[in-house]
Design a protein that fits this description.
heterodimer; A: 569 residues; mainly alpha; two-stranded antiparallel ribbon; 2 strands; disordered N terminus; B: 215 residues; alpha/beta; five-stranded parallel β-sheet; 10 strands; globular; disordered C terminus
Chain lengths: 569, 215
């Protein structure tokens, strides 16, 4: 019985790994081959360096590299510094409580919807200037400022920081649960160190290695993001990832090869950036080691505490204002600059937008649900296999699995998705719904695993043992005892998986071959240059779709367990 | 040096955790507060060292060498604390853990000397470069105490520091701790639920007075 069961479940980790490692490896290799000029589908049968030469010779390449480095590295470093600054200076104060309560809502706002809201908020004709004009500025028309979509990618960087800091804080909080923060601070302070110094010298050095992979993921993402960069990034030339994306979509198919070279260059850029950050960390550790033990117990650093508190207010405030801006625009009929609010309101754009949105929303929901469902089944299968290995006294190599799980988040999407697409074209599997679900699964799986794993592993397996002895069936024990007990985290992980799927832009376009419009592809494509009122409706729909799923996931267990006190939160 | 607890009482939602405590601890003396877990012993210690969670209210006064401690932040009270977990910093080696506690003004050479002397005293000569993770529980407990004492505290609080050690080690470490405190000649307050931990100083038995979760 036992042996039989083991072999059956062993299938899950294998399937899970194959389902996404294969895509990444095949996609990367396929892109590399094209980068060296081989792409028989469009008539290129010989390897050459031409795509690389054309890539480096292209007039927009040098500036695109520069803006990519500024916005990518800038966003990652500022996010990291801000995260540490907030922990060191604001941890557990009044403002911190605001931040902690806002984390879930902040994280649930999709990147694209936030970027659109941020655009409507901070642009020269945006809400902020409308609020203070003409009284403070004297502007009767929007000023000719280049503050959004600026040539250096600064506005893109700021938007990325606002989105990434809450993520890093969430990851840090979960990592800190494995460090005895309260008593480490007590020890440090009893040795005469002020709290800020304890954070800098004792806690952050322990925290960093635990969140290193997430920091790498943030860096990789910032360097290769396409959707937000299209909305807020520079235009002529855009960032590298957007430029490559345009080449891939150029009607002249010859540009695909240059795109492949560019995509591979982005991969090299990301890999070397991660390497550089790793060396930088080692260097800082080495250089500052002596400084940890100089015995200096206080510094002027704490005087910038108001700045940290202000940062929290800004993070929460900007996101809230961005969403409010979207809501106002979606109900606007006429709103002239510099009026603070629209002159006339209207439901028209919701009524007009909704019929058009029906299909994208349907695609979004079906794809998201399918990816979330397959994802949760694979993840639960893997975790159950772990339980069985554990019983046999065999240890699973969790660290290695962790790296594997992070791989799709560390490798830029643009570096392998195009390669996958080309291969699917050859196999005639492109543009079919199952391929689309599978491509979303790549990014849904890591998040499902990361959110469900810790809670699933802490389940008291003796409950199942009791259930098996009573029912005589491992299946019954699993379905009637374990799964219901874990219903809340399972549904939550599914909701996270769903929201990850909703946010996918590149996979939907590349693997769906443009045949599946989702709410995200529509919102991003409309964002620049379309009527703000329509765009706002699309952005809000993108925001609401995962939100509704989240609330359902939270509410269903309450309904199911309404008479079970221990199952309530 | 004297640690003087003057009519200390801690309340949670207006419910006192224990009846008021008055206790005068002389330099070199180890006083004990006994009581089962949940009676508020650790909460009392956090009140004394300045780390009382805001949900509690404190009445009475804590005086160290006639100065009231209550308005001082924890880092200025010069009261050392030792928990049942050694809480050695895992990113520093043993010598660095100890150097962290030494006053800033000391020269590099005298810091080195002090660390060496301390390690010798604890039978840990040559352990300076070791990773804390490679030390045994007893060795870690000794380093933890050395670290507290190297900061030159004027009083020290011991929060069940022996409860995680096995029986054999317990006696050994207990001796080491009490001897070191006597040598430092500072007042110490130990809380424990194990009567065997008690040194010869004054003992207060808290019993189970209030209904509180505080441990």
């Amino acid at each position: 019985m036992k042996r039989h069961q083991r072999s059956r479940l062993g299938f899950f980790p294998a399937l899970t790994l194959i389902s996404f490692l294969s895509a990444i490896v095949i996609g990367l290799v396929s892109t590399w081959i094209q980068a060296f000029g081989y792409m028989p589908v469009i008539g290129y049968h010989h390897f050459s360096l031409t795509p690389w030469i054309s890539f480096f010779d292209h007039p927009s390449t040098p500036k695109a590299i520069m803006t990519t480095l500024i916005s990518g590295w800038g966003a990652a470093l500022f996010s990291l510094l801000t995260t540490f600054l907030l922990f060191a200076l604001s941890y557990n104060n009044r403002y911190w409580n605001i931040l902690q309560k806002s984390l879930a809502p902040l994280l649930s706002v999709p990147h694209a919807a936030f970027a659109i809201g941020f655009l409507f908020l901070a642009a020269p004709s945006g809400w902020i200037l409308r609020l203070i004009s003409p009284e403070l500025t004297g502007f009767q028309t929007p000023p000719d400022w280049n503050i959004i979509k600026d040539g250096y990618g600064i506005s893109l960087m700021i938007a990325l920081v606002i989105k990434e800091v809450p993520f890093l804080i969430l990851i840090s909080l979960s990592a800190l649960s494995r460090i005895d923060v309260r008593r480490s601070i007590a020890i440090g302070r009893s040795l005469g160190y002020e709290t800020t110094q304890v954070w800098i010298k004792i806690i952050i050095p322990q925290l960093y290695p635990k969140i290193r992979l997430s920091i790498f993921a943030v860096l990789a993402y910032s360097l290769s993001v396409v959707d937000i960069a299209q909305i807020l990034g520079p235009t002529i030339p855009p960032t590298l990832a957007v430029q490559v994306f345009r080449w891939f979509n150029d009607p002249d198919v010859a540009f695909r090869l240059i795109g492949a070279a560019g995509a591979t260059f982005i991969l090299l850029l990301v890999v070397s950036s991660i390497g550089a950050l790793f060396l930088f960390e080692k260097g800082v550790r080495c250089l500052l080691k002596f400084w940890l033990t100089t015995g200096k117990r206080e510094s002027q650093f704490k005087t910038i505490k108001p700045l940290a508190n202000l940062t929290i207010i800004t993070l929460v405030g900007v996101t809230a204002l961005a969403i409010i801006t979207l809501i106002i625009w979606s109900f606007t009929w006429r709103w002239q600059f510099p009026d603070i609010l629209p002159k006339t309101w209207s439901m028209k754009f919701w009524l007009k937008g909704f019929p058009k949105l029906r299909e994208p929303i349907w695609n979004t929901i079906t794809t998201g649900m399918a990816a979330a469902l397959v994802g949760i089944i694979l993840v639960i299968g893997c975790l159950e296999y772990e339980v069985i290995l554990d019983r046999q006294g065999r240890k699973t190599n969790t660290d290695k699995a962790f790296w594997m799980m992070y791989l799709p988040l560390l490798i830029p999407q643009i570096a392998f998705l195009f390669g996958v697409q080309v291969l699917l074209v050859v196999l005639r599997l492109d543009g079919i719904w199952l391929s689309l679900v599978w491509s979303h699964l790549l990014f849904v799986l890591p998040y499902t695993f990361l959110t469900l794993g810790p809670i699933y592993r802490s389940y008291d397996q003796r409950m199942t043992d009791v259930a098996i002895t009573l029912s005589g069936s491992p299946w019954k024990a699993f379905l009637k005892v374990k799964l219901p007990i874990l219903m809340r985290p399972v549904l939550f992980s599914m909701a996270v998986g769903f929201s990850v799927s909703v946010a996918q832009y590149l996979p939907t376009l590349f693997i769906g071959a443009g045949r599946f419009e989702t709410i995200t592809t529509e919102a991003v494509n409309l964002a620049s240059g379309s009527d703000r009122r329509i765009v706002a409706v699309y952005a809000l729909s993108q925001l609401l779709t995962p939100l509704i799923v989240f609330f359902t996931a939270l509410w269903l267990p309450n309904l199911y367990f309404y008479q079970r006190k221990d199952m309530q939160i | 040096m004297v640690l003087d607890l003057n009519n200390i009482q801690i309340t949670l939602n207006a419910v006192p955790l224990f009846s008021p405590i008055s206790l005068k601890i002389q330099a070199g003396e180890v006083a004990t507060i006994m009581g089962p877990s949940g009676c508020g012993k650790s909460t009392l210690l956090s009140a004394i060292c300045g780390n009382l969670p805001k949900i509690f209210q404190l009445r009475g006064d804590v005086l160290l060498n006639q100065r009231s401690m209550l308005d001082m932040p924890m880092e200025q009270r010069r009261i050392g604390i030792l928990f049942q977990d050694d809480l050695l910093f895992p990113h520093m080696n043993i010598a660095e853990n100890l150097a962290f506690a030494l006053p800033e003004k000391l020269s590099r050479a005298s810091k080195k000397m002090k660390i060496k002397d301390a390690l010798d005293l604890a039978d840990l000569s040559g352990f300076g470069k070791r990773d804390p993770a490679t030390l045994s529980g007893g060795q870690r407990a000794r380093v933890s105490l050395l670290r507290s004492l190297l900061a030159e505290p004027e009083a020290i609080l011991l929060d069940e520091p022996f409860s995680k050690l096995d029986q054999q080690l317990k006696g050994q470490i207990r001796h080491f701790v009490f001897d070191s405190i006597r040598t430092m000649n500072i007042p110490a307050l130990l809380v424990t639920h194990d009567p065997k931990d008690c040194p010869e100083g004054q003992t207060i038995n808290l019993g189970n007075n209030g209904d509180s979760d505080a441990g």
